[in-house]
Each structure stands twice: as structure tokens, then as C-alpha cells.
Amino acid sequence: MSRTRPAAASAAAVLLVGLAAGCSSAHGDPSAGSFRHGACRSAAPAVLSAGEAARDAQSRDGARIGDLVALTRAQRRLETVRRDATPAERRQLDRLVSAIGLYRLHAVGHTVSPAVARAVVTAQHGVVIRCVAQRTG
Prior knowledge:
The chain is an all-alpha fold. The chain is 71% helix and 0% strand. The chain has helices at residues 4-21, 39-58, 65-81, 87-108, 114-133.
């Protein structure tokens, strides 16, 4: 065994730890504190919860009650928060609310698929981009 393998493994571990330090989850979501103040910050816990539940649901066919409860709570919170959002933020929040609604309809009909959960993940990512990447001091 050469000495380069342990060094490469150590470098990779340091890189992964460094990347994870700025994130709140293994999926790369930022912490709620990274969201811009205002509607984005108010929506952050619901946005992050929706993403986590949808990624969990995406890994299997069928809805789990815990994911459904988390998504329902997130949807209700987002419907309230969106009233104070800027038009651009509201568009992204509305996409997430709609994707969660579609997931819930499929759950009731017992037709949830990874693609339906992926739509929630995609919409959640859009909110994160709008609320974190364009953050102002």
C-alpha cells in the first residue's frame, strides 16, 4: 500500500468536514440563520423541514405518515409567511406550496412516487436559492 492513499483519504475527509461545516444537513441545506431576514427567515424552518421530508420520501415508493405530517405543517406555515414575501420570494414559496399540495394529493390517492417527492425537493431548492444565494447584508 502506498503512502498516497492515506493522504488522499485524509484530504478528502478534511474537504467533507469543511463543506459540512456551513450546512445544517447531509444534503447541503444551509442553516435557518443563513436565510435572508424577513419572510425568508420566517419561512426557513418550514422550507428546511419540507426538503428533509421530501428527500426521505423520495427514497421509497409510498408516503410515510411522518413525512406527510411534516409536509402538511410546512405547507401551512409557508401559506402564512408568503403574505409578507417580496414578489420574487412569493413565486418561489408558491411553487413549494403547490408541490407539497401535489404530494399530499398523491398521498391520499396512494400514488406517491419518487418523482412526486422530487418535485418538492426541486421547489424547495428554488426557495433556498432565492432566500440564501441572493442574501443581502
